[in-house]
Amino acid sequence: MVESTFLYLTLDLPTAPLYKDEKEQLIIPQVPLFSILAKFNGSTEKEYKTYKENFLKRFQLTRLPPYLIFCIKRFTKNNFFVEKNPTIVNFPIT
User: Fold this and answer.
1) Cα–chain center distance at 15
2) Which part of the chain is the Peptidase C19 ubiquitin carboxyl-terminal hydrolase domain (predicted)?
3) Which are the contacts of 12, defined by CB distance < 8 A and separation ≥ 6?
4) CA-to-CA distance for 33 and 31, rounded, in angstroms?
5) Mean residue pLDDT across the chain
6) Does the pLDDT at position 19 exceed 70?
């Protein structure tokens, strides 16, 4: 276990479920904020790959700083180009 201080959290966007709008024309991918924050619940494992080995990491928040910045990873590199994930992140109002 390693403890480290932070000011921002990097959040990965999953391949989200697709919802159609009222007109049945546009497809809008949406994901709630709490589902992408599940990475930091202490029990969800994330796999990391390097050239030599694969390993699993778990993240847990023990206490929060006064201000927190979310960095949502929307861009992924492909072999040919950079692709943007258009998923909408729903933030709770209350």
Assistant:
1) 10
2) 40-93
3) 36, 39, 73
4) 7
5) 79
6) no
